[in-house]
Write a structure and sequence with these properties.
Two copies of one chain form a homodimer. In chain A, 43% of the residues lie in helices and 18% in strands. Chain A has 456 residues and is of the alpha+beta class. The interface between A and B is large, with 107 and 109 residues. Chains A, B: It catalyses: tRNA(His) + L-histidine + ATP = L-histidyl-tRNA(His) + AMP + diphosphate + H(+).
Chain lengths: 456, 456
Amino acid sequence: MAQKPSIPKGTRDFNAEEVAKRSYIMETIKAQFQVYGFQPIETPSFENSDTLMGKYGDEGDRLIFKILNSGEFLKKISDNDYNSKSEGVLTSKISEKALRYDLTVPFARYVVQHQNEIEFPFKRYQIQPVWRADRPQKGRFREFFQCDADVVGSTSLFQEVEFIQLYDAVFSALNLEGVTIKINNRKILSGIAEVIGAQDKLIDFTVALDKLDKIGEEKVKEEMQSKGISEDGISKLQPLFILKGDFGNQIESLKAILSSSEIGLKGIEELEFINTAISNLKLKTATLQLDVTLARGLNYYTGAIFEVSAPKDVKMGSIGGGGRYDDLTGIFGLKDMSGVGISFGLDRIYLVLEELGLFPDTIADSTKVLFINFGENEAMACLQTVTKLRQNGLKAELYPDAAKMKKQMNYANRRNIPFVVLVGEEELKSEVFTLKNMNSGEQHKVEFKELERLLK
Amino acid sequence: MAQKPSIPKGTRDFNAEEVAKRSYIMETIKAQFQVYGFQPIETPSFENSDTLMGKYGDEGDRLIFKILNSGEFLKKISDNDYNSKSEGVLTSKISEKALRYDLTVPFARYVVQHQNEIEFPFKRYQIQPVWRADRPQKGRFREFFQCDADVVGSTSLFQEVEFIQLYDAVFSALNLEGVTIKINNRKILSGIAEVIGAQDKLIDFTVALDKLDKIGEEKVKEEMQSKGISEDGISKLQPLFILKGDFGNQIESLKAILSSSEIGLKGIEELEFINTAISNLKLKTATLQLDVTLARGLNYYTGAIFEVSAPKDVKMGSIGGGGRYDDLTGIFGLKDMSGVGISFGLDRIYLVLEELGLFPDTIADSTKVLFINFGENEAMACLQTVTKLRQNGLKAELYPDAAKMKKQMNYANRRNIPFVVLVGEEELKSEVFTLKNMNSGEQHKVEFKELERLLK
């Protein structure tokens, strides 16, 4: 192969610094997941196709990566089926497994499969890659990690409260201050649709409403009209477009709009409970904000809907989201299991921390000291010392070859190794080491104890 | 879907305890990789098929999981090709990507692709899953993690020395004492083949020799004969079958056998250097042992060959292996890059630690304290305290529902939560907490400061 190798589009290699930064985010999230009482699970990268297919809509089905059956995969296909030369017919015959598309469906499958081993309510977290055959674009990849925490088996609104606290705790721990945790409730959207006589147009209605920030009030109304929502209905929405003030004031306006809708009032009650609790508990650095236009994954959520936006001065879509779904495991035959969960957008959080310079300086610190190799005898003596340092947990290296001094120093420089030890014949006899600080250029002679102290 | 869902054969779900134990092993390995100056990289789960195909032999090609192209994957196939109904013809047309089969080929691809950003010698580690369409059996899975460390760009034997130290450091850190690090050298095998006039039968010869432990001297000789190795040649091997004593003695015997083989003597010289260095440096808990029958992946290695066996009282295949390959990146067009590396067998190490009871007791410790939920007001007050504890890094939970006391206590019991806090109306007023030790059954009243102290 003469041509330089490459990787599939939408995938990425990560170098040491990137791995370190990504794992800093993941470890921070993981630590808070654990503090909040969530337990880790891991599921296989591929599932049986029938576990995944049909769970994400037609578009989802298309975006699921299918794995070709091994061996004689054409053998079991009838001539009729084969001669149809149809992807639809063939796919299910030649592929029985598919790569995980998200962590929620595998989680639901896990809960049903292991229901007898699980203590409910079951608080689980899962940090694993997922794959989607999406068209790759800036910030959208075909392989990416999801970081999810969910509780299944309790309808208590304290869960929603704790998830808001968890978002706040994670972003505070990442020093990412000023994120906005937006909250809405599917029941409020249903209530509004009811009030304006558009129960059957809930999706059209929320899709239009969702654009309020982008296209403005007039265009939103036009779109609603074009979807067949009556002018009378739209006029009842007027207070919605001018919902102002803090959480409490907005709730009062919503109460006025939704006074005739039972489900709408239920949604308001839930939001009030959550808001009161959060006001009592106080968030460290995040702000909780009611956003009636928030609709994400509407067909999915049945109660609370969450979305987190980066601080205002950063241009970036949502960096987290989630919500409650009343029948998480029903798709696998286990009824009445309410679930609520949130997800962290690793790649976007990465970009935000990068843009704001919030990664700790020491994050990618690797080797602390390089021992220069002056030849076999010296190197052997060095390795004795390197071994001792390593046994005490210090990251130390011996340059493997007796290469030119300049080459070895360059290696230390380019690797950002802050200290270099030079042990020549003279030092070998006297058992002192010449320690060079690569930043200041200073060098002085030290004994082992001192060397160890300085490196720590 | 009425039927209980399942996962593909050869794959596994991991529960909280298993995740914790696996990550204990991986974190221990990772910490030593870093102390030894290795840097992490990560590569995509799937590669372009031409990156992987043809790199692992015919058997390997068959065991690689191929990913079906998305969309209209039949469109580009000619009628001729289609009508052949041949898996061989179709596979490359309908699949352009394949799941990673090991970490070495992707590493070689990475090095070539990023050669201008890399400082050589490049010491990288990589801990990621790989996939093989092998027939699943006890201890063999279709998805499993590999933990690899390799150096590329130096022929220095100090690398081999350090890898032996690294094995010793990792297994010592895991408290797995008494592992045997077996070493051989491809050059010695080549030398022996040369001496007995069977250069062209090196593979047959080593395959037979490799069975010495299992089938004994006579059967090995029979097998060699059946493969066409002359009786005269086999008789020259006699000293090989009675190689006894320590490393030094075995080396002396080998010198006698290989005195006429240049390459054989080179192999001996390398082994001697490594053995002398390790004798000087001393291993903590492992033993280095020369094993002339060790051949693993013969077509691959060109110098040192390593394999690690579990302590003698544990029945288990190798728990690690590796070696030197002189032309690691040649397959991708970058010549003269010698590589040497080792791998840790996560699944087998797991089984060994489990069998010997070596996992630390505290490894799967999750939630430390559960606050019993007596109703909305009490729960709200509890959540204040839970929040404070969490902010101080303590793993705490509030039971989300005001369920029956027995149910909540059962939850704590089954989750192995060691402490439970009961805050009823009375406690709410006096701001003291009743803390119950779930092991002893004792309970007493404490203030917050005391609560925090006891839980830490």
